[in-house]
Specification:
By secondary structure, the chain is mainly α. It has two domains: 52 residues, no CATH class; 138 residues, Lysozyme (Orthogonal Bundle), CATH 1.10.530. It is built from ten helices and two strands, in the order H-H-E-E-H-H-H-H-H-H-H-H. It has a two-stranded antiparallel ribbon with strand order 1-2. A hairpin with a 2-residue loop joins strand 1 and strand 2. Helix 4 packs across helix 5, helix 5 packs across helix 10 and helix 9 crosses helix 10. It is rod-shaped, with a radius of gyration of 45 Å.
């Protein structure tokens, strides 16, 4: 050991001050210059721990700042992906809700399709104080009679030579005549929403028989039962096609 120290002192004495400083830095592992190790001193490049080989001092390592930056970027990307999924779910829900609750018809026509039925349902719930499914049963029947609120008159009258039915309920005979007189007396277009809704309310509220039908309707427990009661009591069709009527009624419940 003494011989090693003597040799090292001789080496230092032959070097300039700058070279001696570099030699000391090399011994400490701060330069690219090979480090001199004393006898028995372990080479750090060959040290092995439970985690593996210990890296040398001159190996480049990721700084704490770089690590945090990378972690923050990954976290942001993950959060962004989550937000996108939530936004898609909200848009899907809003789309389905819009399909079940279409905008109300405000144009005044009584034959503009499904939107007319939606407005009619809301109005009769308010006028008669019916439950949601009971009002839907009324509208489903009228939807069936008019081909989805698109036909103001019966296309092929069942009674040969007659004018057939007209309006939401396809009122025929004396009831059609009353309907036409109601529209004329109130200066209404016979195909307007106001004429059809107004006559229907007047007829139901002023005829003892139809008043009893509404009372029966109020006792129903579900939309299918309500559809049958209103069809048989108020419309009394020759060919009921009840399955079609029930399907139409469920449509106005979003089912």
């Amino acid at each position: 050991m003494a011989l090693y120290e003597t040799g090292l002192d001789n080496l230092r004495s032959s070097l300039t001050a700058r070279e001696q400083a570099e030699l000391r830095r090399a011994q400490k592992g701060f330069t690219d210059r090979s480090r001199l190790f004393t006898d028995g001193e372990p080479d750090p490049n060959k040290l092995v721990t439970k985690r593996g080989l210990v890296p040398s001092r001159d190996k480049e390592e990721t700084s704490e700042t770089d690590f945090l930056t990378e972690f923050t970027s990954e976290l942001y990307a993950s959060n962004k992906s989550l937000r996108e999924q939530v936004e898609e779910a909200i848009q899907k829900a809003e789309s389905e809700s819009t399909q079940k609750e279409p905008k109300l018809n405000v144009s005044g026509s009584g034959f503009e399709g499904f939107e007319t039925g939606v407005k009619f349902k809301a109005d009769i719930e308010e006028v008669f104080g019916l439950n949601d499914f009971q009002a839907a049963a009324m509208v489903g029947n009228f939807d069936h009679e008019t081909g989805g609120f698109t036909m103001p008159e019966e296309l092929k009258p069942l009674v040969p030579g007659s004018r057939g039915g007209a309006g939401w309920a396809m009122w025929t005979g004396k009831r059609r005549k009353k309907f036409e007189n109601f529209a004329k007396e109130n200066n209404l277009d016979i195909n307007s929403y106001e004429a059809n809704f107004g006559f229907f309310v007047q007829e139901v509220q002023n005829d003892p028989y139809f008043i009893k039908i509404i009372e029966q309707l109020e006792k129903t427990k579900n939309v299918d039962e309500a559809t049958e009661v209103f069809s048989k009591g108020y419309l009394n069709p020759g060919i009921p096609k009840m399955n079609s009527r029930k399907k139409k009624s469920r449509l106005y419940l979003g089912k």
